[in-house]
């Protein structure tokens, strides 16, 4: 069994050490492995609990936007051209998140996760305006560049765990609202915005037909909202 390179932060180093011993379980036997790894397991438990105690739990509006058509586009174009193209597009998409008072938590491949504290004024409305503007940007970008590129967006409102992870202690949003926003984005149609029941009822929107999905073996209600790319949505409070 080959091991990955030894990590730099203490928690991952302990996990690496335990894995290194377990790799020789056939030669050492289960009792010896348990004896050798017990101190590392204890210390790992203590550090993990300490790290968890520093995490903050907040109510957030979470938006996940994922580009549709990027993979096929990357296969058809030169890598440098794709990089330049995507940098231009992400610069516009990221800017609209910031302009609507959102925080960019992270980019994940060809997707972006943004959050708004519920305690902030009109957080849900700002997230919705961001989604609309993103569609406007994609419609303009697609027409100007003659590209088959679109976007899917999911939005949820709920509990987010803000934790510091990795050697750099980078802050990362995790938790139920992030998971549900991801689920909604994956089930949104191309060019659509799918929002959770809670998010929808926090918006001043015309009536929309509820849609039912099975999430963690339970039915949930979501709403597919219409966007109007032709409308200028750059004005915000």
Question: What is the overall shape?
Answer: globular
Query: Using only CA atoms, what is the Rg?
Result: 22 Å
**Main β-sheet, in a few words?**
8 strands, mixed
User: Helical stretch count?
Assistant: 8
Tell me the helix content: 40-55%
Strand content: 25-35%
Distance between the termini: 57 Å
Overall pLDDT confidence: 83
Unreliable stretches: 229-237
Structural class: alpha+beta
Number of β-strand runs = 8
Architecture blueprint of SSEs:
Elements: H1 10-22, H2 25-28, H3 30-53, E1 56-68, H4 70-76, H5 79-99, E2 103-108, E3 111-117, H6 123-145, E4 150-165, E5 170-174, H7 176-187, E6 193-196, H8 197-201, E7 210-215, E8 218-225
Parallel strand pairs: 4-6
Antiparallel strand pairs: 1-3, 1-4, 2-3, 4-5, 6-8, 7-8
Helix pairs in contact: 1-3, 5-6
Question: How would you describe this protein?
Answer:
This protein is α+β, with helices and mostly antiparallel strands. It is built from 8 helices and 8 strands; from the N terminus they run H-H-H-E-H-H-E-E-H-E-E-H-E-H-E-E. Strands 1, 2, 3, 4, 5, 6, 7 and 8 form an 8-stranded mixed β-sheet that branches. Helix 1 (10-22) runs antiparallel to helix 3 (30-53) and helix 5 (79-99) packs antiparallel against helix 6. The protein is globular. Mean pLDDT is 83; it is low at 229-237.
């Amino acid at each position: 069994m080959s091991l990955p390179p030894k990590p730099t932060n203490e928690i991952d180093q302990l996990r690496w050490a335990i894995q290194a011993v377990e790799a020789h379980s056939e030669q050492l036997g289960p009792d010896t492995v348990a004896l050798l790894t017990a101190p590392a397991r204890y210390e790992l438990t203590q550090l993990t609990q300490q790290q968890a105690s520093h995490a903050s739990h907040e109510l957030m509006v979470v938006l996940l936007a994922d580009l549709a058509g990027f993979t096929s586009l990357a296969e058809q174009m030169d890598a440098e051209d794709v990089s330049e193209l995507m940098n231009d597009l992400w610069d516009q998409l990221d800017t609209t998140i910031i302009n609507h008072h959102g925080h960019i938590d992270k980019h994940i491949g060809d997707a972006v996760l943004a959050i708004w504290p519920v305690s902030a004024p009109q957080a849900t409305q700002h997230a919705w305006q961001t989604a609309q503007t993103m569609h406007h940007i994609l419609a303009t970008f697609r027409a100007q560049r003659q590209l088959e590129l679109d976007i899917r967006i999911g939005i949820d409102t709920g509990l987010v765990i803000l934790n510091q992870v990795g050697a750099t202690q980078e802050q990362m949003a995790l938790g139920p609202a992030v998971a549900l926003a991801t689920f909604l984005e994956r089930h949104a149609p191309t060019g659509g915005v799918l929002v959770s029941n809670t998010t929808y009822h926090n918006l001043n929107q015309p009536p929309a037909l509820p849609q039912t999905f099975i999430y963690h073996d339970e039915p949930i209600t979501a709403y597919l909202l219409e966007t109007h790319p032709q409308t200028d949505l750059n004005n915000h409070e």
